[in-house]
Amino acid sequence: MLKFLILLAFLVGSSFALTEAFSLEIEFQKETERIKDAMGWINPESISFQEQIQLVIDSSGSKNRISIGMMSKDPNDIRFPDYIENIVSEPKIISFIITNQFACAPNQIDKACVIIDLEREGLGDSFEEITKNSLEIANNIVGRGVLLYAAEHYSTNLEKKTVVGEEKTIISRVTYTINKQTTENMFKAIAGVTLSSDIITSGGFYEHAKELSRNNFAAFSISLIPLEDDIMLRTVQVSLICSDKLPEYIRCPENVIEQIERGDISPLDFLQVENVSKSKMFGDEFVPLNSIIQVLIFSEQDLQVKNVNSNLIEKLYNIGDIQENGWFFESSDGKIIDGRYVFGEDLLVNKNDLVFSIGSYSGDDVTITSGEGSGGCLIATATFGSELAPQVQLLREIRDNTVLQTESGTNFMTGFNHFYYSFSPTIADYERENPMFKETVKLTLTPLLTSLTLLNYVDIDSESEMLGYGIGVILLNIGMYFVAPAILIMKIKKQI
What we know:
Elements: H1 2-8, H2 19-32, E1 50-58, E2 64-72, H3 82-85, E3 93-99, E4 111-119, H4 127-142, E5 152-162, E6 168-179, H5 183-194, H6 197-201, H7 205-213, E7 219-226, E8 232-242, H8 254-262, E9 264-265, H9 267-271, E10 275-277, E11 291-308, E12 312-313, E13 326-331, E14 333-342, E15 348-350, E16 356-360, E17 369-370, H10 378-384, H11 390-401, H12 407-420, H13 424-433, H14 435-452, H15 463-495
Parallel strand pairs: 1-11, 11-17, 12-13
Antiparallel strand pairs: 1-2, 2-8, 3-4, 3-7, 4-6, 5-6, 7-8, 9-16, 10-15, 11-14, 11-16, 13-14
Helix pairs in contact: 10-13, 10-14, 13-14, 14-15
């Protein structure tokens, strides 16, 4: 069953993964309707356009998939030519997809595909009758070609499929082949004529999808999914599969493999970016569920989320639960981990805030710890290249397992963070721009890291011990960074 779920995530109709964000919003709205008093909370605005980054991780390492998509129920956001839009009047059609995903037509791997799924019921009793009626309906849509492409019928088959919001059922699938282009070219050509100018010029996840489309192994999909009351869900998606165990796929970045092995998940390492911003289409609107970063982890062993670097949203019950950004876990333990990051009122999230850790399932109801307010070491991360570097891990472990375990340590971190984050983003950015400065900072941090390792060799069980060892480490660093250099300078001056 687990392998089937993993396979399902990579099927041709993968654009349906985008409906996860849509379903999350619908369920949340149902619960929110029960709340009569908003208690001063900000009420979410209603905007049809949504964007999603989805990361699917197979913890065995065989396949990992990143997809970036945009979707809307508003034709002003994503619009097809009228002859395709008219599928809304054909009740048999379940979905319409254009994709260049590898082997969408298994015997013609050099082709892209147009896939039209129809309800099996009412198409006939025999396979010949079903095929004839299915092809007649599909030809009415693609008979004159599809967008910029001429389409040729490839196959008509009966397939098992899970329809959005329903159980698995038998459907009739008509597949056509079209000329295959690179994902970058298809994204430019099709997204350029179907997406509104507002989406294209507003940045957000669209920019990351455009960047991902430049990868030679990326795949493109665009779809129409009839819902109800003549409304259609429209999706545009770019995806990429990476693997180190299957030679036919592109290799994952080295830090991605390391994080999976260590159990520290950093979603933006897959995109190799430092931060992600919401679309400017949302402006100053409060739309916390319109931009979602989702991580799905499939494992052969039971796993458990241990902690998150940012805020933890324990439930999505009413609008009070999404006033702030953070991770919400639909499933936080077992063979499937399903987490969604929502932006709240924030416009941007950085890489470190998205990091969360997983480990073996302990069999107990473990409370997920949150690093909200503690942030991350931006300077050390920029210096050593990743928040998964051993030096950064050391700082995080000392912070979480030693300093924050006492009230005095927590108070110290609160004051320190206020001071530290007033200048650290600037230094971290300059490190990325200037390799020589980065090496200087690395050399400067070495004595600090050495002194902090001393805390790993002592037992701190009380407030007094925390204060004693903490003051001792501070004095040691003052001696190394200020007193020793001052003495050295004075001796040099005397000799001169």
